[in-house]
Specification:
One of its GO terms (molecular function) is oxidoreductase activity, acting on NAD(P)H. Belongs to the zinc-containing alcohol dehydrogenase family. This protein is an alpha/beta fold. The chain folds into two domains: 151 residues, Quinone Oxidoreductase, Chain A, domain 1 (Alpha-Beta Complex); 148 residues, NAD(P)-binding Rossmann-like Domain (Rossmann fold, 3-Layer(aba) Sandwich), CATH 3.40.50. It contains nine helices and 15 strands. It is globular, with a radius of gyration of 20 Å. The two termini are 20 Å apart.
Length: 348
């Protein structure tokens, strides 16, 4: 059996680079030779929660090794993401080869590097899902006729940076939070107004900027206190809708009268694979999600042009070596030493 190098979970909720079988694509799947991978917080968290023997990693860019009857060509440059460490079906891209559904990759434009392509898929998909499916906001293809406010809390996170860009392309008035040192970056990405979340009065600043008319918010931080603050920034008369990337519930906010009209919803991007999903504390999933898969396939078809024209700018890249250096990157991220950038690794 042909083998490859892969980052695999081991006993004690750790991981190590090991020899693993090269996966074989099934019906509707392709085999990709991985050239670069990008690190997400979900990767090191998955190691801590997974049994031994799972291949780690979600975001990748590479070349088609086995088109397996699909419309892709051998050697064609593609990128996408998988649910790393999943078992049914087995998935993980911190490896020399990986399998993915043929409809869930996008062709990398010639002007875009493997590194830049690798940092897009998972975070971009999360932003798309939160803004346009969960919040139901206008899409860039049919932007709002008149701008209304949207709050992107955690605008310099990987997901937040894509959310800022997408919301601006959708014709909205984008208020983003981030540390003062990143305010210039947020404005370059399209934020109309920026607020330092370290300010004591950041909630009041948002209410003033939105003239107490904020009804939509995407909390890319989703710690309890951040979601409480976001909910408090919504319209005091109309309330509004907050989407979180971690499992949060309205009951956690407390019994303040201002929260009675607030809807709190969590979203998990792995529903784009269309399969029934059980994932930690997320409680609004379970059955098949073909609509989420179709929505992601639509945006995969739009991504190449977005990237080629600069409509969407990839997150800032920081190369950290090869597959043997990924565990070092996990430590940096766990220690909070990765800010406004994505760690990438050269695999082949």
């Amino acid at each position: 059996m042909a083998t490859m190098k892969a980052l695999v979970t081991t006993e004690g909720h750790k991981a190590a680079v090991q020899d693993a079988p090269i996966p074989v694509p099934g019906d509707g799947e392709i085999l990709v030779r991985i050239h670069y991978v990008a690190q997400n917080p979900t990767d090191w968290k998955a190691v801590a929660a997974s049994p031994a023997g799972r291949v780690v990693g979600c975001d990748f860019a590479g070349t088609v090794s086995n088109p397996n009857g699909s419309s892709w060509r051998e050697g064609q440059r593609v990128a996408g993401f998988v649910q790393g460490t999943s078992a049914k079906p087995p998935r993980g891209v911190f490896a020399e080869y990986a399998v993915i559904e043929s409809s869930l990759v996008f062709p990398i434009p010639s002007s875009v590097s493997y590194q830049d392509a690798a940092v897009v898929p998972l975070a971009f998909a999360t932003a798309v899902q939160a803004l346009f499916q969960r919040l139901g906001l206008p899409e860039p293809s049919k932007p709002a006729k008149s701008a209304f406010p949207i709050l992107i809390n955690g605008g310099t996170s990987s997901v937040g940076k894509y959310a800022v860009q997408l919301a601006k392309r959708a014709g909205l008035y984008v208020i983003a939070t981030g540390s003062a040192k990143n305010h210039g970056l947020l404005k370059d990405l399209g934020a109309d107004a920026v607020v330092d979340y370290k300010d004591q009065d950041w909630v009041e600043q948002i209410r003033k900027l939105s003239h107490d008319g904020l009804e939509y918010a995407f909390d890319c931080i989703s710690e309890l206190e951040s979601t409480k603050g976001v909910a408090a920034a919504l319209s005091p008369t109309k309330g509004g809708h907050v989407v979180c990337i971690l499992p949060r519930k309205k009951e956690e906010l407390g019994s303040e009268p201002t929260f009675t009209k607030v809807k709190v919803e969590s979203t998990i991007v792995y529903t784009v694979f269309g399969r029934p999903l059980s994932y930690g504390a997320f409680d609004n999933i379970g059955g098949p999600t073909p609509q989420d898969k179709a929505f992601w396939e639509k945006y995969l078809s739009l991504l190449p042009e977005y990237l080629e024209k600069g409509t969407i700018k990839p997150n800032r890249v920081r190369g950290l070596g090869g597959i043997g250096d990924i565990l070092k990157g996990f430590e940096l991220q766990a220690q909070g030493k990765v800010s406004a950038e994505k760690l990438v690794y050269k695999i082949a």
